[in-house]
Each structure stands twice: as C-alpha cells, then as structure tokens.
Write a structure and sequence with these properties.
This protein is an alpha/beta fold. The protein has one domain: Maf protein, CATH 3.90.950.10. Helices cover 34% and strands 23% of the residues. The chain has five helices and seven strands; from the N terminus they run βαβαβαββββαα. The chain has a seven-stranded mixed beta sheet. The model has no long low-confidence stretch (mean pLDDT 94).
C-alpha cells in the first residue's frame, strides 16, 4: 500500500518509517510540499484525524497521521495536545523543544508521574467514514534535568524508572521497540489486518 505520512516533523518521520517496514511505500508529506495541517482541537484523536484527512486530500493517497504529546499528572494532563508549542511558537523546532523542556521543569514539584500518548489514524481516502484509530501510552516520570542526546521533544526529560534511562538515552532502535508511537502503530496494523480479513 502506498500512503502519505502526514507529518513534516523529521523526528516523527525517522521513527515511523522504519516501523512500517517494507509493507508500505511511504511518502512523507514534506516531499510532496504539503503544509502542516491546523491542529485546533482539544484531543489527540481529532488532531490526528484532521492531519490525516488534510494529507490524504492533498496527496490523493491513503494517509497515516499521529498526534502525540506528553501528559503530566500533576499538571492536569498538560502539556498534552499543546506539547509542541507549550512555551510558544517562536524559533526553530530545536529552540521550541529547549523552551518547552525548561517550562515543564519550572512547572513541576515533587509529583513527577506522566506518560506519552500517541494516537495514530489511517484514512484510506480523505472522506473515509471508518478511519482506523489506535492509541499507545508509554508511562514514566519527569527527570530533574535533561539527559541524553537521542530523540526529540521531551525525550531528554522522559525517564523510564524500570531501566533508569530517559527516552533520549535510548538507542533509536530500542526506543522504537517500546515507545508510545510503536505501541499505537502495532495496534493500528492489527486493526488494518482485521479489516482486510473481514
């Protein structure tokens, strides 16, 4: 199946493409000069669906999109769907990541539990009445300071107590075996296989 990957985020593209393997011919929307979709919604699923429909409409292909973010219990689930722009819209992606991490650290006290949430959506065409939707959650806590040089976003602060490493200290292949994104994608592929068998 040929599909468009509905993200211009190079970090997400680097993670998602290898997970899809040889089963799909993946075309990143950036190579088709498709702009990012607006994400005005308050839920991951609505934003992911908006991105998938936008990319499918522009590319005339099935589209895979995700919306994901870090949800911190002590902050009532924030930054959540606002994760990418938690500390504002100015600057490069790397500059925003640095500011977002600094704001997160400044907002927290001793309660540090949180999780990454990823919602993946596959639409077969832009008006698909039955989009496939899957969710993956990756539980951890927020470290006291950034650690590690891999990953992107909040990965330097997302600590996995069971292994004593942040997501940014994991090798990319290791992260791709256990992350919220791979959990959501595995579930989505199960739904796709079940749909083909039906």
């Amino acid at each position: 199946m040929k599909l468009v990957l509905a993200t211009n985020n190079p970090g997400k593209a680097r993670e998602i493409q290898p997970m899809l393997g040889s089963r799909f011919e993946v075309v990143p929307q950036s190579t088709l000069k498709i702009a990012e979709a607006d994400e005005p919604h308050d839920t991951f699923v609505e934003n992911a669906l908006a991105k998938a429909r936008h990319a499918s409409r522009a590319a005339k292909l099935p589209a895979l999109a995700d919306d994901s973010g870090l949800c911190v219990d002590a902050l009532g689930g924030e930054p959540g769907v606002h994760s990418a722009y938690y500390a504002g819209y100015d600057g490069s992606r790397e500059e925003r990541d640095t500011r977002n991490n600094a704001r997160l650290l400044a907002s927290l006290g001793d309660q540090r539990a949180g999780y990454y949430c990823c919602v993946m959506v596959l639409v077969r065409h832009e008006a698909d009445p039955r989009p496939l939707i899957a969710e993956g959650l990756w539980h951890g806590e927020i470290a006291r300071s950034p650690r590690g040089a891999n990953g992107f976003g909040y990965d330097p602060l997302f600590l996995l107590p069971s292994i004593g490493k942040t997501a940014a200290e994991l090798e990319p292949a290791e992260k791709n075996r256990i992350s919220h994104r791979v959990l959501a994608l595995r579930r989505l592929l199960e739904l796709l296989d079940a749909d083909h068998r039906a």
